[in-house]
Design goal:
- 36% of the residues lie in helices and 17% in strands.
- It is of the alpha/beta class and 391 residues long.
- It has one domain (14-390).
- The strands form 3 sheets. A 5-stranded mixed beta sheet has the order 1-2-13-11-12, sandwiched between helices.
- A hairpin with a 4-residue loop joins β1 and β2 (64-68).
- The protein starts with 25 loop residues before the first helix and ends with a helix.
Length: 391
């Protein structure tokens, strides 16, 4: 896909002289407090007494670099979950197919709203490590949401969970666009991020912000503190079903807040909806620029649309690859939703110009750098580059 080359500069961007700030909430403090507890090995033989080999860190003085990486995408998602969730506070699990992205794109704010991680599975059977993690954190009788139809997650997977005493709910539409609608129906909101469903990077950036906003939101009928959902455009078009659902929700929940993320979604929404309905538009020159805009603006404490009012100093940021979806999906659903960390998508050999500019804005303030994925996806040289910028 050819990525959009038109860039929108925001009044809250550091390019207009405003240095963005990133929030650290009480959830962050709680997350950091549990760093030493039970962990998961990057192998199928995982026991409660095993040492944590999927988590590593190195102290570089002013910045501590953390890496969460399993042997594969499924174990990496579990590794993230182990950092953030414990049985005493986990309310649900969202389960998405790990080898294809369409049904999973809208899942991050669902996980944030119902207080649980986003985990990945094979279509026909859950990896043992994933099933073990569900049993570790989720009390029988609570809900596991399955994203997509039986071609995404089979009834065999569902039966396994049913047999263990979990309540399962499949969320599926006729296609990726209707599946996103069905997910959004579970969220009491008319606040939406629009992103294209024909590729994953813009939706991952939007999902991270949507999860963070949803996690910090309150169900108090205030438009500024409602959850956020992801609605997908068919490239540069909004399907009739998506348009009808968005308008219907705007009638139910007044004063909607809508954002477009990426050039395709921005063109699509601008053609169909009145301009006053689009609160803000985030269009970079490429996926990395768009993601950096989202991270910078949405996590700015002065941004008028953010529901979070804490004034904690910025200390955390997440790096993950922008060339594949699973690690960023799990990071958005858990690090974004549980800890409200901003997400930077990095390139193969560099943090990239746009990521570097964002990190430079945080020079001297970020204390913890979280890398999601192994050395083959996010090279240690990229981490070194990020640390050098932050110090």
């Amino acid at each position: 896909m050819i990525e959009d080359q038109t860039r929108i500069i925001h009044p809250y961007s550091s390019e207009r002289g405003n240095v963005s700030r990133i929030l650290v909430t009480a959830a962050t403090v709680a997350g950091l407090a549990i760093l030493g507890i039970q962990a998961v090995l990057p192998s199928s033989a995982i026991g409660s007494g095993d040492l944590d080999r999927c988590y590593s860190f190195r102290d570089e003085g002013d910045v501590t670099a953390n890496r969460l990486a399993g042997a594969n995408r499924y174990e990496t998602a579990v590794c993230i979950s182990r950092r953030a969730w414990e049985r005493s506070w986990t309310q649900t699990v969202v389960l998405a197919r790990g080898d294809k992205y369409p049904d999973a794109l809208a899942g991050a704010p669902l996980a944030a709203n119902y207080r649980g991680p986003l985990l990945l599975t094979n279509t026909d059977a859950m990896p043992e490590v994933v099933l073990d993690e569900i049993q570790r954190i989720l009390v029988p009788g609570r809900t596991v949401y399955l994203l997509g139809g039986t071609s995404a997650i089979s009834d065999e997977v569902r039966s396994t969970l049913d047999d263990l005493g979990y309540r399962t709910e499949r969320i599926a539409g006729a296609d990726r666009y209707e599946t996103a609608i069905e997910i959004a129906k579970r969220l009491p909101t008319s606040n939406f991020f629009f992103a294209t469903g024909t590729d994953y990077p813009d939706a991952l950036a939007a999902g991270n912000a949507a999860a963070a906003f949803t996690s910090a939101g309150r169900d108090d009928n205030n438009p500024g503190t409602r959850p956020y959902a992801i609605l997908l455009t068919a490239g540069g078009e909004v399907t009739e079903d998506v348009a009808d659902f968005a308008r219907q929700r705007a009638n139910v929940y007044s004063d909607p807040i809508w954002f477009t993320v990426g050039g395709w979604a921005d063109r699509a929404a601008s053609k169909v909806f009145e301009q006053h309905l689009l609160a803000d538009r985030f269009v970079g020159t490429n996926r990395y620029d768009t993601a950096a805009q989202v991270a910078e603006i949405f996590f700015d404490l002065d941004y008028p649309y953010r529901p979070i009012t804490s004034s904690h100093p910025p200390i955390d940021v997440t790096l993950t690859t922008g060339t594949n979806f699973p690690d960023a999906l799990a990071a958005a659903g858990t690090l974004g939703g549980a800890w409200e960390f901003p997400l930077i998508l990095v390139q193969n050999y560099s943090v990239g110009d746009h990521g570097a500019a964002l990190l430079n804005d945080q020079h001297g303030t970020v204390k913890y750098l979280w890398t999601v994925g192994g050395l083959s996806t996010v090279r240690e040289s990229i981490v070194d580059e990020a640390i050098q910028i932050l110090e």
